[in-house]
Write a structure and sequence with these properties.
Layout (H helix, E strand, L loop, with lengths): L19 E3 L20 E2 L2 E2 L1 H8 L1 H11 L4 H22 L11 E5 L5 H14 L8 E4 L1 H4 L7 H12 L3 E5 L14 H14 L5 E6 L1 H10 L1 H5 L3 E5 L4 H14 L3 E2 L1 H15 L7 H22 L5 H5 E2 L2 H4 L27
Length: 351
């Protein structure tokens, strides 16, 4: 495995960068900040100790955290375990002198907004770092605006600078299909794609690209850019959550914030989910998080206006009125918070 080689720091101004960089958290239970495992210590006298690698790398902590953080998504979790197994065995083969060409690690995550794609990408960065495939284990999340310039000569430096930021980690490109605009011959997105193709090949041992978006749009994108599709080895689809799974997500979020739903409050939230699923721009986990935040706000307002002494139960319990006051229940479309991005009508941003 070739060592990560640091390049000069990005040359563009921080004001131009609108993406997000997530670095390993030293205090996280399973953050990728721990040192990568030494595979040489797992091989002796012609035998490889797989369990010592698993134990020392603490890879299963990351996988178990995925199980705790994400409801359902069994096919996704199974695929992540399979990739982790491939990576462990590949490194052990290398240590034992067997043919072990570094596997292609670029990935495509498809699915609706709020189905856990960014969370899984973060955990994949931790796994890759612990097993020595990437040096730093951070994730750089970007969109078209971070890669494509506004004028001639602007796109190449922007794209290359983003790659510099991502070296040693994962470059997560949200709604990657917006890089390709066939209806605009003067668009500079194709230049960004060509640079990414070059970097994905030349720097394949130094960073991993994960492209995310709606399944149908990503398929069209790869058909229009076969070179990009051929460099992506792992296509992972994130299925939509059903109402029961969304209710589990809501209960998990409520508990994590130190609240609880009363029995009637739980019934009201379940009805909210059923109604919200039928509305446009539903973003699964993200929409549920927004609903929980609104319920907290209504609960706080209700208690504030009560002008009475409050018990602990008052402070932690979300009641039906905190949910039924939503406009979902009076057939007025409830707006999702805007992040300022341009979106297709009827679609929310991918994650």
């Amino acid at each position: 495995m070739s060592a990560y080689r640091d390049r000069s720091s990005p040359s563009f101004s921080e004001d131009e960068f609108t993406g997000k960089v997530v670095r390993p958290d030293e205090g996280a239970q399973s953050g990728s900040a721990i040192e990568a495992v030494d595979f040489a210590e797992a091989v002796s006298e012609g035998e490889a100790d797989v369990q010592s690698v698993v134990r020392d790398s603490r890879v299963y902590e990351v996988i178990e955290e995925l199980d705790r953080e994400l409801v359902a998504l069994a096919p996704v979790k199974r695929r992540i375990r399979e990739i982790a197994a491939l990576l462990v065995i590949d490194r052990l083969r290398d240590e034992m002198g067997l043919i072990a060409q570094r596997p292609t690690l670029h990935m495509s995550f498809t699915g609706s907004p709020g189905t856990g794609k960014t969370t899984v990408a973060l955990r994949m960065a931790a796994i890759l770092h612990r097993l020595g495939y990437i040096e730093r284990g951070h994730l750089v999340s970007v969109t078209r605006d971070d890669l494509v310039g506004q004028y001639v000569g602007h796109t190449a430096p922007k794209t290359k600078d983003i790659v510099k930021r991502a070296l040693g980690g994962i470059l997560f490109i949200d709604e990657a299909y917006y890089l390709h605009r066939v209806d605009n011959e003067r668009d500079y997105g194709q230049e960004a794609i060509e640079i990414l193709l070059q970097e994905m090949e030349s720097e394949r041992e130094n960073f991993v690209v994960v492209m995310a978006g709606y399944r149908d749009r990503m398929e069209e994108f790869f058909q229009a850019n076969p070179g990009m599709g051929s460099r992506v080895a792992h296509h992972i689809h994130f299925p939509d959550y059903d109402a029961d799974e969304l209710m589990q997500i809501a209960q998990m979020m409520v508990e994590q914030q130190g609240y609880e739903l009363s029995e009637d409050g739980e019934a009201a939230f379940r009805e909210y989910i059923v109604r919200r699923l039928a509305r446009p721009r539903f973003a699964h986990g993200r929409s549920i998080r927004n609903a929980v935040e609104r319920a907290r706000m209504r609960q706080a307002n209700r208690l504030f206006e009560s002008k009475r002494r409050l018990t602990r139960a008052d402070l932690v319990t979300i009641e039906p009125d905190d949910i039924l006051s939503s406009s979902v229940f009076d057939d007025i479309q409830e707006e999702e918070p805007s992040d300022g991005r341009t979106r297709e009508p009827g679609r929310s941003e991918a994650n």
